[in-house]
Design goal:
Helix content is 40%, strand content 20%. It is an alpha/beta fold and 278 residues long. S-adenosylmethionine binds next to helix 1 and strand 4.
Length: 278
């Protein structure tokens, strides 16, 4: 387990993932009923971009740095996401960046709950420290898929799971499929957000084919790619699969993709995708 998200916080794939997370959560706030947010691979919760890891890669320059000061009109989910990031920073400066638990926590209402699992021992300690004393948040030092088994269906039964593994193992797609199938059998009404890197298109096609065969629930797939598929040895983009998407999420995503691709892919080398399975 070598992956440390501190090297990648705020990069373009993080921005895309966190904006989709905001869009999904916001769609669930139309009812007062409580919800539960489960983050299986939670990371640190919050990142300091002035630290050595971030400074070494400067990956935030491909993502959050490009849009933090943008004043143009934007889709509501992007506006909300930027409001969260700006609220943690001084104007004209970006030092603090929220991970997925930080983004979700900024939006949760008093009646909502959050369950976080993280396996890397040091990152778990930081995550735990970051949410110390927060009665709405439970933090566990646990494998994300074991956590999924242990915590679904959650109480309250309304809510969503983010599955955002590091993809260090070639079997990660298989593990996702196996564990999501298991979770759906226990919690059919849950919303599942699955992040994946776009590096190897044939592997993604194979996974999506398997997914289509096995998942008998509505879902959508969306991708933001900054480079063509055949660019070697790099992250060309990223995707999210959303099982049981909230009502009208598919209508909100095209504007999000359009805005992000204009701002993050100014040379328009990449592409975007939205596939809807009813
Ligand atoms: C891509 S990062 C998560 C980023 C986070 N979701 C966010 O958006 O801010 C993946 C995280 O999974 C952790 N991890 C690796 N293997 C894991 C496992 N088996 N179970 C839970 N966490 C794991 C890594 O330490 C890393 O912090």
């Amino acid at each position: 387990m070598n992956y440390r998200h501190a090297y990648h916080a705020g990069h373009f794939a993080d921005v895309f993932k966190h904006i989709i997370l905001v869009a999904v959560l916001e769609s669930l706030f139309n009812k007062d009923k409580p919800l539960c947010y489960i983050d299986t691979h939670a990371g640190l919760g919050f990142y300091d971009l002035s630290k050595r890891e971030s400074k070494k890669t400067k990956e935030y320059e491909t993502g959050i740095s490009k849009i933090i000061d943008n004043q143009t009109k934007k889709p509501a989910a992007i506006e909300q996401y930027l409001k969260i990031v700006r609220s943690m920073n001084q104007p004209q400066e970006i030092i603090q960046y929220p991970g997925s638990p930080g983004v979700a926590r900024a939006l949760l209402r008093p009646q909502d709950k959050m369950i976080l699992t993280e396996l890397q021992p040091n990152d778990y300690q930081t995550l735990k420290h970051n949410f110390e004393g927060d009665k709405q948040v439970a933090v566990h030092h646990l494998d994300g898929y074991q956590g999924l088994k242990a915590f679904v269906p959650p109480m309250p039964r309304r809510g969503l799971v983010l599955i955002d593994p590091p993809f260090e193992q070639t079997s990660e797609f298989e593990m996702i499929l196996k564990n999501v199938t298991m979770a759906l059998s226990r919690w059919a009404q849950g919303i599942y957000l699955i992040w994946y890197p776009v590096k190897n298109r044939p592997q993604i096609n194979y996974f999506q084919h398997q997914f289509e065969r096995k998942i008998k629930f509505p879902y959508l797939i969306t991708e933001l790619n900054l480079y063509p598929d055949d660019s070697p040895n790099q992250l060309n983009g990223s995707g999210m699969m959303i099982i049981n998407p909230p009502w009208q999420l598919d209508k909100k995503i095209p504007a999000i993709l359009k805005w992000l691709s204009q701002e993050l892919d100014q040379e328009q080398r990449g592409n975007t995708k939205l596939i809807i399975k009813k």
